[in-house]
Structures
1.
Amino acid sequence: MGLKLGVAKAGIALCAVALVLTWPHAQRAATFLAAQDDPAQLADLQLGAALQQEPGLIERHTREALDAHDPELADSLVQLAASRNVALPDDLKQRVAETVTAERSATGVATRFATGLITGKADDGASLSGTMAGDLFVFGDIRDVVREGSNLATGAEVDRLVLGLAAAGIAITAATYVTVGGATPVRAGLTLVKDARKVGRLGEGLAIWASRSAREVVDTPALRRAVADGTSVRPDKTVTAVKAAFRTDKAGGLMRLAKDVGKVGEKAGTRGALDTLKISQGPKDVARAAKLAESKGGQTRAFLKILGRGALLLTTGAWNFAWWIFGALMTLFGLVVSLKSGVERITQSWIDRRKARRARRLIAAAKRAESERLRADAAVGGLVAPS
């Protein structure tokens, strides 16, 4: 019995220590798993874990953003620091404020607007406005359709994604005018995806998906005819022909992607949308980024910079988190079993001792009774003995 009780006590001690060690990990795992469908909450948890490992993380990234001449990102990081009650040096915050003011000057905005209008490339809000102005007047999309369509007709290398996005842009532009800007987020999203593709800032997985979707939305023979018959000098004729080559019924996925990208751009800025497209591996990532941007607004770029794709989904596999929870539950089960076994052994030991004491009392009482009987017999024998 002593050996069994000792084993039970050792099991209790071992399981208790293991539970103390695994429980914090299990709690963290359960919290992360519960937040995996909420990008904003998940990003907060991921950032909290990162700041525990490196308290100066936000300050370091802010200085790097300033060194890279990206005041918008630096400002996003300052906003994030304020929301997390992370103290930044006053001189650093002053530098950020000055660079942001300089970037938002009238001259800088006008220059970037003109650059976007002429080149069709957007990397911030001003240049995107210029790019969108060109696309809303369709010459930007016509330029891309004519260029890629000509490559298609001559057998040269064709960027199917840019071609499909430009065709979709031409088709959606009419809707933008009809709804008085109601389709503008989709229009902006198409422009951003197209620009990200041109400058190589589209995630590999997302690029593959978008290219496949773009192939489906364009009627290639009809587009060849549109390019052959159309001209940039007669945009109305080209627009009509390209719209006829655009398969609206096949464009649902591409339009949802564009809408989500437009939401990110609206809440987090053009560069926030471009950062999202760079790290995304599929439309689901972009949809999660749109939810994050709706919740975090201007802080979104800071989350994306610090956490990368981890701002959108669990970077550690759910299976690993599940194993921590499973391990903690098994340890808890082992502790309960060990406690049960220990209680049973202690109870049995107590019962055995009680039985032993009772047996000893009964034996003692029997001995006393026998002794008294013997004395009584001896006394009676003395009385009747012959004189």
Note: The two ends are 61 Å apart (CA to CA).
2.
Amino acid sequence: MRTVTNYFIVNLSLADVLVTIICLPASLVVDITETWFFGSTLCKVVPYLQTISVSVSVLTLSCIAQDRWYAICHPLLFKSTAKRARKSIVVIWVVSCVIMIPQAVVMESSSLLPELTNKTSLFTVCDEHWGAEIYPKVYHTCFFIITYFAPLCLMILAYIQICHKLWCQQIPGSTSVLQRKWRSMQCSASTPAHGGPVRVRTSTVCAEIKQVRARRKTASMLMAVLFVFALCYLPISVLNVMKRVFGTFKKINDREKVYAWFTFSHWLIYANSAANPIIYNFLSGKFRKEFKAAFSCHCYTKSPNQTKRIRTRTSTESRKSLSTQVNNMDNVSRISDQVV
């Protein structure tokens, strides 16, 4: 499970956990009461962390798309490793924390009504306070382009090329190539002296089929994650541009309808965080297997010797699987000129 893609998926999950633990409770209270009860400090911290989570999510999805694009469309141009993935994750968090600093600076809590005798402030709001009208327009326009529009366009282009490579082109493992290989193996099988090469080619074709199927499943899962992200973050992105850049809602008297739209868009963000684990579970067999293995230890107690034997067997099988894949890829390069 310690692949480059899974490193980025774990980072995406951390951003979802950040939203759920820190941002969800405060937003829930504000959506129900329409009042900010958490003081001026949290007024800066909570929106800042929420924008960081958005930035981390979109940058992580961009890195995943770039990694898959290089691995499938241009495997010889760039070799992705776990070390580079960890460095990329660190860069993602540092960049997100830096570019979202203006969000923390401009957020301030203010009271719409004066304090009561017991110093309780009613109808306190946490909102942005800019010095001039041009600043929020520039900031939110750049925020929309950097954290939503531009990355989404690049990811869509990357996955279009990935789909074309995996489903449309005649790559090893596709129907016509396999048919030619099977015809060649059937002709070779009629001669007893070629039994060894036929077995090698049969295992090679099976390995190719498994590799292409695994890549297609991974691409399908990542495209589903991207689709859900784009769908859930679209309303809040559009509403923020309409409010901060164009000032659309200043002329609308129906405040309850506007408030309902913003509340709905906030809940879509939290729905995105909740939907990602469900997507991993339904579209990734490895995720389901490792998830069950991780939590089965709490339900069933195993002796240390049994656990050690299981780990040894798993490690041995992993090494055998890796060596088989390497040998199969070498066989493909040697046999392709004879078969195709």
Note: The mean pLDDT is 77.
3.
Amino acid sequence: MNFHYPNRKSRPIQQPLSPSAGKLKLNDSYANRGMTFEEDINHTNAHYLHIGKSVIHKKPTPVQIVSVDYPKRSAAVIKEAYFKQPSTTDYNGVYRGRYIDFEAKETRNRTSFPLTNFHQHQIDHLKRVVEQEGICFILVRFNASQQDYLMEVAHLFHFWDQQDNGGRKSIPKTYFEEKAHLIQLGYNPRIDYLKIVDNLFFSTS
């Protein structure tokens, strides 16, 4: 099935997570790296919700269905659909009484993170969240090294805004190593990004 983005090429829609994806299992393997970045984050958020730490969910995107097949009377298969509007960011919610909003991206590039992973409307949205004093950041996974980073959006804005002045079209991985925050893979939660959020946004030291 193809989903068409506003002013963008269509792409196949990813299969949704199974109904059990958000459930916590005692036999979840620490070493299971077959999970996608999105699944790791979703499991992490499910754990946070389960222990009452935060309420953070992946944002649903409204779609317009334009083509449906009925292979049998008891089932319908969506063949083509369009996103009604450009997406903003992947996740939002509430943590410790504050609004939280972030985007999650991954790259196969070994040495840098291409800025083409973002779009202007997403940058504009993130800037508006910052203006309202919301908690705002990006999560980035480098697939080659299986390293996850939390980066404050001010760094992203710096590289994005410099593009029009002949700046880089990507953020070097070395910059992540120096300025961003490496997230150690864990058991439950798998990607404990709120531990870093605590230090960045709630530390009194």
Note: The longest strand covers residues 63-72.
4.
Amino acid sequence: MSSQPPADPARLPAPSLEEIRAFINELVPFQKHVGADVIAIGDDCATAVLPDSADTLNHVGTRHAGALFLVAEAAAGAALAGALAEWITATVFVLRESRMTYRRKARGEIRAVAEFPGRELRSTVRSLAAGERFEATVTSSLQDGEGECVAEAEFTYHCRVRLTEPSGQA
């Protein structure tokens, strides 16, 4: 048995965006069940794909609204995770509110592109103490294989600071 204390998550190295992306794809069992996959993540954006599969069709042969919601939210959560990358081990967030507008029938592979416009988030989080809460809103746009917009969504997340320091900071 080691006599060293357990590692402090606040002092662990921050995961890379690729590590965050891979973790997100393993985190939600229903996302894996449907086949939605986060394929790219940046500092304030992410892209997820819903494959063309008979398993995600509705009764009229187009993508089911629930599957579209899932891929839109997967991209949005990944975009927020990218924005919080430095703080990802020091914060936790859950979906609080959503709004989705379906523009046209969705067929084939669907690509969800999410953007987080809150560039001030990093300074806000930096100023919060452990236990404090904040909200973050992310938008997603869904396109079919021809680049046509099939839906748009907005997701508001309830976030809480768990630790007072970001990963890798002293």
Note: The radius of gyration is 17 Å.
